[in-house]
Amino acid sequence: MPAGWTAQENQYNGMQLLPAAISGRKGTAFYGQMKNDNGALLDVKLVIIPLESDLWATETLLMSQRLNAAQTSALNQAVTAIALTNGK
After folding, report:
1. CA dist., res. 26 & res. 51, Å (int)
2. Which tops the pLDDT comparison, 32 or 9?
3. Which residue from 29, 32, 39, 47 lies 20 to 30 Å from 7 (Cα-Cα)?
4. CA 27, CA 86: separation in Å to the nearest integer?
5. DSSP code of 11?
6. DSSP string spanning 54-81?
7. How far are the Cα atoms of 4, 77, 87 from residue 36, in angstroms, in the given order?
8. Angle made by CA atoms 26, 22, 67, in degrees to the nearest 5
9. CA angle, 38 as apex, 63 and 76 as ends, to 5°?
10. Above 70 in pLDDT, residue 66?
């Protein structure tokens, strides 16, 4: 977990931390659940990849638990297509 960050169970049901990578670059994935302003429960995935000491790449996915299998598959394919470039 990045320095200064903490994870604890709270009204958002806490987090799960796992290794992750985007375009072969290693980072950390945060998985959890949260409720939006309308009270709908969302599955949350946040990936943070350090690029330089003061620069990070992030990928955030908020997914409704009401998606069917086809919708979930389409969303996963779209997210998988995301790649980092060497640009700043």
Report:
1. 9
2. 32
3. 39
4. 16
5. T
6. TEEEEEEEEEETT--HHHHHHHHHHHHT
7. 25, 24, 33
8. 125
9. 5
10. yes
Q: 40: which 2 tokens?
A: 């709908």
**This model's pTM is above 0.85:** no
Look at the block and give the residue holding tokens 């086809």: 70
6 vs 64, more confident: 64
> pLDDT tens, 10-29?
555 555 667 888 888 898 88
Distance separating alpha carbons of residues 59 and 63, to the nearest angstrom: 13
Give me the percent of the chain exceeding a pLDDT of 70: 75
Q: CB under 8 Å to 49, separation ≥6 — which residues?
A: 20, 21, 22, 25, 26, 27, 56, 57, 58, 84
Q: Which two tokens mark 68?
A: 């069917």
